[in-house]
């Protein structure tokens, strides 16, 4: 009977992975029960970046980890982004009534410049 690490090595060699059954990464995959199918998917992902070059187990290791523990699914509804209070005027009166809008602005500490005042930006 062959060791699980040797079985993984024999499955990876035709895929262009330079792995030995004594490699600690391969032994770790065997101990964790990583399937040949998952490793083949990792090789496919690696090929997108490495092309036809030989792939060492060290290159596959982070890809295998991502496949074993995918990030949590994104929420169906995204959280609203942070509000920049400097430019947030949602709390002000926008009725179109000038007196009501000016009163609302004064309540929130926003003053209207006079005709002779410049607005600093």
Could you characterize the architecture of this molecule?
With 121 residues, this protein is mainly alpha-helical. It has a domain of 65 residues. Helix content is 45%, strand content 0%. The protein contains 5 helices and no strands.
Percentage of residues in helical conformation = 40-55%
Structural class: mainly alpha
Strand content: under 5%
Shape: rod-shaped
> What integer is the average pLDDT?
84
Which sequence of SSEs, written as H and E, runs from N to C? HHHHH
How many runs of DSSP E, i.e. beta strands? 0
Defining key terms:
0% strand; mainly alpha; 121 residues
Draw up the topology in text.
Blueprint: H1 4-12, H2 24-32, H3 36-50, H4 57-68, H5 98-107
Helix pairs in contact: 1-2, 3-4
Describe, in short, the structure shown.
With 121 residues, the chain is mainly alpha-helical. It has helices at 4-12, 24-32, 36-50, 57-68, 98-107.
């Amino acid at each position: 009977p062959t060791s699980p690490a040797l079985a993984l090595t024999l499955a990876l060699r035709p895929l262009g992975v330079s792995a030995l059954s004594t490699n600690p990464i391969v032994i770790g995959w065997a101990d964790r029960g990583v399937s040949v199918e998952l490793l083949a998917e990792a090789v496919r992902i690696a090929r997108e970046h490495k092309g036809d070059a030989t792939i060492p187990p060290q290159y596959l290791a982070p890809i295998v980890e991502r496949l074993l523990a995918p990030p949590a699914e994104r929420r169906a509804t995204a959280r609203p982004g942070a509000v920049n209070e400097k430019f947030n005027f949602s709390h002000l009166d926008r009725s179109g009534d000038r007196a009501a809008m000016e009163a609302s602005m004064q309540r929130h500490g926003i003053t209207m410049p006079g005709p002779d005042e410049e607005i600093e930006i």
